Q: What sequence folds into this?
């Protein structure tokens, strides 16, 4: 492996890949690269989100999901489905966000069991103020966690992707 194709110092190289023997198809290799890269991003984001917004990473994901929706919000069941989270865990996270003044909950008209959740103006302003910084954290974490071999594997899976180094 040459110096230009070395993974970052904290990223172990893959002995199987170095030997030239490929057991997995490119799509599975790329998927594993993507999982490793997103794991690194998530670790950095946990810290950045806590310091910047004062919420957990999972709560941040809820805020981001709601930020991309109309002001009317989403049903709790939709949020749980879209994030792949258990409804009981989501109820706790929404309660934390509500106590922080970042979301509102209300009953859905005509459905006494339905609950809808939406961002508050405070949350919208906070996201406006911090989103560029957090996006930079994502870009830097991806750039730091992906060497040229990993970028090539990911590009093979998503040929039209533009990665943090511009490739």
A:
């Amino acid at each position: 492996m040459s110096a230009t194709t070395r993974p970052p110092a904290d990223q172990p190289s893959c002995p199987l890949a170095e030997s030239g023997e490929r057991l997995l198809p490119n799509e599975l290799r790329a998927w594993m690269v993507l999982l490793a890269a997103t794991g690194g991003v998530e670790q950095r984001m946990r810290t950045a989100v806590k310091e910047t917004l004062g919420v957990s990473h999972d709560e941040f994901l809820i805020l981001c999901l709601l930020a991309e929706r109309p002001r009317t919000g989403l049903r709790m069941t939709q949020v749980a489905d879209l994030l792949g989270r258990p409804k009981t865990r989501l109820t706790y996270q929404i309660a934390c966000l509500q106590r922080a003044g970042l979301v509102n909950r209300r009953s859905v008209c005509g459905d006494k069991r339905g609950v809808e959740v939406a961002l508050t103006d405070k949350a919208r302003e906070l996201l406006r103020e911090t989103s560029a910084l957090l996006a930079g954290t994502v870009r830097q974490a991806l750039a730091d966690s992906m060497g040229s071999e990993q970028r090539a594997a990911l590009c093979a899976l998503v040929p039209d992707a533009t990665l943090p180094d511009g490739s």
Remarks:
- The helical segments are 15-19, 26-53, 57-67, 76-83, 87-99, 121-145, 148-157.
